[in-house]
């Protein structure tokens, strides 16, 4: 063992250059491997006498450190220079984007309507989809066997019972449950899924969604109803929107009305969406019938209220001019993905 040999090996190591990972590995084996230059020097070191050991011990350790550091340095340089790595792929490339889902148009409309009424001070109430006859009909002033029940074809869950279970045909049942348990005044909107035994077509479905509103307090008048609906229509369809009320009939409201908004497509000129009338029907409403208030234990001499209800699919159809209701239930991604960047009307 002599100093010059060691210096020479050290110089060789320091001057090492490698282009590929394979070359670095070969160099590591040649220097630090079992039979590598440095390893062999350490073996020789064991056999030399004490004086020499003192002289070479430190030098050899330094040589090993230099070699180890150099190999690490070469490996790191490879990684930076060529992120393609061993597999030949560029690991710095951005990944394939994961397709994000989008909100269902009915959800978008529901949230928008809830948000508008929240601003007016309304809470949100929910109730069961499987209901009993009492909450869907009886408490809402539909007498047993009254023909008004045929306005809403019902799916029964249990038949022949005094108070049979059924799939709710409207969310007015949630209003009954709210009147039963809340203290007055009441101001709620009730969004939810409803069911009617109807043939499926472009204009009707056996499952759809409604949102209903209920406001009960002292001295609530028809003027309050009109104002609430006008403000709602302007928030929903634009500040120039007009509303028009037509007399109608619901067992649970008296007087009852059907409400139209001015067509926001032709602005009253008449187009094929409003069928040339300039108006679009959007909801049913009225003053809560005193019988309905009394059935839920509310003093109809002291309190009065209004209620309104609308179909979410209908509003979404008008908003985005979708002409077939069935699109909302088929979950075709080509349809659903249209709404990720849906424009605000
Ligand atoms: N429940 C009625 C329906 O489903 C809508 C409505 C609600 C009408 C509240 C008036 C008042 O047709």
Protein described:
Helix content is 39%, strand content 19%. It contains twelve helices and nine strands. It has helices at 3-15, 21-32, 37-47, 50-81, 105-119, 133-136, 172-181, 222-237, 290-295, 312-320, 327-330, 333-336, and strands at residues 123-124, 130-132, 165-167, 186-195, 207-217, 243-250, 253-262, 279-288, 304-311. The strands form two sheets. It has a seven-stranded mixed beta sheet, sandwiched between helices. Strands 2-3 form a two-stranded antiparallel sheet. A hairpin with a 2-residue loop joins strand 6 (243-250) and strand 7 (253-262). Helix 3 runs antiparallel to helix 4 and helix 5 (105-119) crosses helix 10 (312-320). The protein starts with a helix and ends in a 9-residue tail after the last helix. 29% of the residues are buried. The site of phenylalanine has 11 residues, from strand 8 and strand 9.
């Amino acid at each position: 063992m002599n100093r010059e040999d060691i210096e020479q090996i050290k110089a060789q190591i320091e001057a090492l250059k490698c282009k590929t990972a394979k070359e670095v590995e070969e160099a590591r084996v040649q220097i630090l491997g079992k039979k590598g230059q440095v390893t062999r020097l350490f073996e020789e070191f064991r056999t030399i006498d004490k004086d020499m050991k003192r002289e070479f011990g430190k030098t050899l350790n330094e040589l090993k450190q230099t070699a180890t550091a150099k190999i690490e340095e070469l490996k790191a340089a490879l990684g930076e220079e060529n992120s393609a790595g061993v597999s030949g792929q560029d690991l710095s490339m951005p990944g394939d984007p994961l397709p994000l889902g989008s909100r269902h148009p009915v959800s978008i409309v529901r949230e928008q309507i809830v948000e508008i009424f929240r601003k007016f001070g309304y809470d949100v109430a929910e109730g069961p989809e499987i209901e009993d006859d009492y909450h869907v009909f009886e408490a809402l002033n539909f007498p047993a066997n009254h023909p008004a029940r045929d306005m809403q074809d019902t799916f029964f869950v249990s038949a022949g019972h005094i108070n049979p279970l059924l799939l709710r045909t409207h969310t007015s049942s949630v209003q009954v449950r709210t009147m039963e348990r809340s203290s007055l005044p009441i101001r709620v909107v009730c969004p939810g899924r409803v069911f009617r035994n109807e043939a499926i077509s472009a204009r009707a479905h056996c499952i759809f969604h409604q949102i209903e509103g209920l406001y009960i307090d002292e001295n609530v008048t028809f003027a309050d109803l009109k104002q609430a609906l006008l403000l709602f229509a302007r928030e929903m369809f634009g500040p120039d929107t007009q509303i028009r009320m037509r007399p109608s009939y619901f067992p649970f409201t008296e007087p009852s009305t059907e409400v139209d908004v001015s067509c926001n497509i032709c602005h009253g000129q008449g187009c094929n969406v409003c069928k040339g009338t300039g108006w679009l029907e959007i909801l049913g409403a009225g003053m809560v019938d005193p019988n309905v208030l009394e059935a839920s234990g509310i003093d109809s001499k002291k309190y009065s209220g209004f209620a309104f209800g609308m179909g979410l699919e209908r509003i979404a159809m008008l908003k985005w001019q979708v002409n077939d209701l069935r699109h909302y239930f088929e979950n075709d991604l080509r349809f659903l993905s249209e709404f990720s960047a849906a424009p605000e009307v």
